[in-house]
Structures are given as C-alpha cells and as structure tokens.
Design goal:
The chain is α/β, with parallel strands linked by helices. Helix content is 31%, strand content 25%. It folds into 2 domains: 4-45 and 119-315, TIM Barrel (Alpha-Beta Barrel), CATH 3.20.20; 48-117, 2-Layer Sandwich (Alpha-Beta Plaits), CATH 3.30.70.20. It contains 11 helices and 13 strands. The strands form 3 sheets. Strands 7-1-2-8-9-10-11-12-13 form a 9-stranded mixed β-sheet. A two-stranded antiparallel sheet has the order 3-6. Helix 5 (155-167) links the parallel strand 8 and strand 9 (171-176). Helix 3 (123-130) packs across helix 5 (155-167). The radius of gyration is 21 Å and the shape is globular. The relative contact order is 0.15.
Length: 316
C-alpha cells in the first residue's frame, strides 16, 4: 500500500529547526488550537485555498477567478490602493461558506495570489526530494526535520518517512507538541535522532482552557522519550498573559531537570504576531492572540532563571 501525507510547506537551508543545515517538512493537521499560532494553515487536515491580497493585481486587470468558481464563492470586493504601484484596484472577496477548496481559481491565478495550501506526497517522492541536499546535511551536521501542524497526527506517514530517511543515512529531528498516543512515540523513537519538544504551560487546566487540550499526555510523553534514551530540545514559546510568569518558567525548568540528560537545551521563543497575517490568508474566523512582544529584559530574566537551575538556554 502506498502511504501518502499532506504537506503544506518544505523549507530548505533551515538553521532554526535542529543542528546544522536542514530541510524542514511541514505536515498539515494539528489537534491543538494555540491562539498565537504562527502557521494557522497547518491546523486543518485538508488542502485549503489561501489568498495573499498584496499579490492580487485586481479584477480589472485579471478577474479570471470570478468566472471559474463553480460555487460562485468569489465576488467583487473592496477597492484599495496597491502597495507598490499606488493605483486603485478592486480586490476579490471569498465566501468561505460556499468555497469547497476545489482549486479552480488558483489554477487560473497567474500572480499566485490564490494558491492551494496542502500537497499530497508519497514517502518515496518526498525522500527523493529531501535526499538531494544530503551533501549539505553531511557537511554541516544537519539533516531533515519533520514538523507541523503536529506531525504525529499523520503517524503512519511520519514513521515511514523517518525510516526512509534513516535508511539514507540522514539525521532526523521531529518537531512535536507531544500530544499524541504513547504508541506513536514508541514507534518513532528508534528513528528520531532529536525531538524538538514544545512545553507551553505547566498547569493543565490553563493549557486546556487556552489551547484546547490538557497537558498530562504531553508531560508523560516527554518522560517516555527521556526514559527511552531519546534526546530533546525543549521549546518554550513565551506568550504574554499566558505563560510569561516567573512561576511557570521555574516550574517548567524543574520539570526539565527531571528529564536529566535527555534535554540538551531549552529554547525560549518570544511571541511574535506574524500569524495574524496568515489567518487573513485563509480567512480564519478563529480568535487570534495579539499582544506586545516580550521585552528583551524579560526574556533575559527568564534565561537567567533557567541557567541558575543548571540548564542550558538559548533564545530564538
């Protein structure tokens, strides 16, 4: 049986998702609903129509999408001033209740303002694509990182891809929320050289209230990886008014200490608002967190707290 997975992006020459030069594969689908999510297009499991308004040249110069939509979901929208040419152009408006993500409009949009987010790959197709950069991985100590969404929400595809990459002698990393069944963790452990592991809050009630799921499974799976001899970089997104208290940072640090040598480094990831624009691309009606970016002083204070606990810390 041919195993396929739905991928929404592949980023080459990445240096933020594990050691060395890497290629990061982003899979669609995630069970969490973080309000600050900087990749909202990763949440759903199906291919979605996306629209980047600044690429649109306007209905008067194009307008092909208006005629090809079988559902009549694309209509005339508002008039704006183009950011570059400064001329007035009339944009489109997408009725998301009518749109069925068929992709007909994206096929005729030559400025690529409309595009489909989510491509199906077989493991063989993706491995062939990823192995082309093996010389860069080998020279830099890099490899391939499988991310999401939540990659373990496509467990069979992720496992098979990891196996395929290891057969090619490629270093593997798995970027995960940790919210998955124990059997999925056990399955990928032998083929994952490094886990990039998110810890968002130590209080399960707040975790569920804000993100939609409790954190017990996440913490248990972190212990499971450590007990099995796995290695992880723990990532803490620092989100104002959610987890940016000294108490939570200390509790997170204490938990990381219980994992022993499994934790190679803790990465502090200050909140940014780049996800707001991406929500607009998919016309998401979900509530989007918008908050001030944490100050350098605050991030440094958290770094000092964790380092005083004997933990290695970096800021990204």
């Amino acid at each position: 049986m041919t195993i396929t997975g739905k991928v929404y992006d592949i980023q080459g020459f990445s240096v933020q998702d594990g050691p060395g030069i890497r290629t990061t594969v982003f899979l669609k689908g995630c069970p969490l609903r973080c309000p600050w999510c900087h990749s909202p297009e990763s949440q759903e499991f199906y291919t979605q129509l996306s629209w980047i308004s600044m690429r649109c040249i306007g209905i008067d110069k194009c307008g092909k999408c208006l005629n090809v939509c079988p559902k009549g979901a694309i209509r005339q929208g508002t008039v704006i001033q183009h950011m570059v040419t400064k001329e007035d152009i009339r944009l489109i408006d997408i009725d998301r209740d009518l749109c069925d993500n068929c992709g007909a409009c994206a096929n005729v949009c030559y400025p690529d303002a409309l595009y489909m987010c989510g491509t199906d790959y077989t493991v063989e197709e993706l491995t062939e694509k990823l192995v082309r950069d093996k010389p860069f991985y080998d020279q830099s100590g890099g490899g391939v990182t499988i991310s999401g969404g939540e990659a373990l929400s496509q467990p069979e595809f992720t496992l098979t891809l990891l196996k395929s990459l290891k057969e090619k002698g490629i270093h593997t990393a798995l970027d995960t929320t940790g919210f998955s069944g124990a059997k999925n963790i056990d399955a990928v452990l032998p083929y994952t050289d490094l886990f990039l592991y998110d810890l968002k809050h130590m209080r399960s009630d707040l975790h569920k209230q804000v993100i939609g799921v409790p954190n017990e499974i996440i913490l248990e799976n972190a212990k499971r990886i450590a007990d099995a001899g796995g290695k992880m970089q723990v990532r803490i997104p620092v989100i104002p008014r959610f987890n940016d208290s000294e108490e939570n940072i200390k509790e997170t640090g204490e938990f990381c200490k219980t994992l022993g040598d499994a934790v190679t480094v803790i990465q502090l990831l200050p909140y940014h608002n780049l996800g707001v624009m991406k929500h607009q691309r998919i016309s998401s009606n979900k509530k989007v967190a918008q908050a001030p970016v944490p100050s350098d002083e605050k991030i440094q204070s958290f770094k000092n707290i964790l380092e005083e606990m004997g933990l290695k810390v970096t800021v990204h």
